[in-house]
Amino acid sequence: GLCCPGRDPACLSAGRRPDGSTGPCYCDQACARTLDCCHDYAQACPVIPCVVSQWSAWSGCAEPCKTTYRVRTRHIIQEPRNGGEACPALEERAGCVEYWTRQGTECQQSLIPALITTGGFGKARKKRAAVDGSERAGYCVEFQLVAITPACLHSHHSYTQWMRYLREGHTVCVECQHPALHSPSQHCYGDGTGSQQNQLLRWQAVGNHRCEGTWRRIRQLDTCSCPSVHSFLFI
């Protein structure tokens, strides 16, 4: 009936040891290493590790319209005993942003990440708009690229080659055209409208979800004159 945690010389009985000899048998957790247990110690005092449940579903963001965190939890099903492995963390947090309030209204534009693609698709857009007569006047926004994930440089498909031209510190020009121009706001999502000066804004490349980063809004140009190399489109 003795199963003492740690090393405890007072946890003592007498009997037969695993090597066949008889004498004092220690019933603490160190006896497994020193071989001075009783022969039935492993059965009488088995090592029982901690057992935890599966993770719960992720919660929503702690606060809407802010870069905060979400939480998931799990609980202990069985406590560790007799030197069993300790319990792991019971809570995990991950960063998140929600773009809608609890009442279902849209958060400010500056929080919404911009989805961008190469400016080369703009010609096809304009051709389609000209056919149905729905072309509207757009605008351009200049940004300075601050951070870019390494995945942008490892885009091997032909339709993602343009991502290799993204470089930290470069100024890029992003055009807001129909049909990305949303009414009634008359803005493209993620264009940084309402952002503070030098605020870091998020962008993501369409076609490779791991190609993303941050930039700062420089200015809006009502008359577009984007260069061909660093020209992109809002989606």
TrEMBL record:
Q: Which organism is it from?
A: Callaeas wilsoni (North Island kokako)
- Superkingdom of origin organism: Eukaryota
Per UniProt, the keywords (alphabetical) are: Disulfide bond, Glycoprotein, Signal
Is Glycoprotein among the key words of this record? yes
Q: What is this protein called?
A: SBSPO protein
One protein family per Pfam: SBSPON_C
Domain SMB, by residue range, is 1-50
Task: Identify the PANTHER family for this entry.
Answer: RPE-SPONDIN, SMB DOMAIN-CONTAINING PROTEIN
InterPro entries annotated for this entry?
SBSPO, SBSPON_C, Somatomedin_B-like_dom_sf, Somatomedin_B_dom, TSP1_rpt, TSP1_rpt_sf, TSP1_spondin_dom
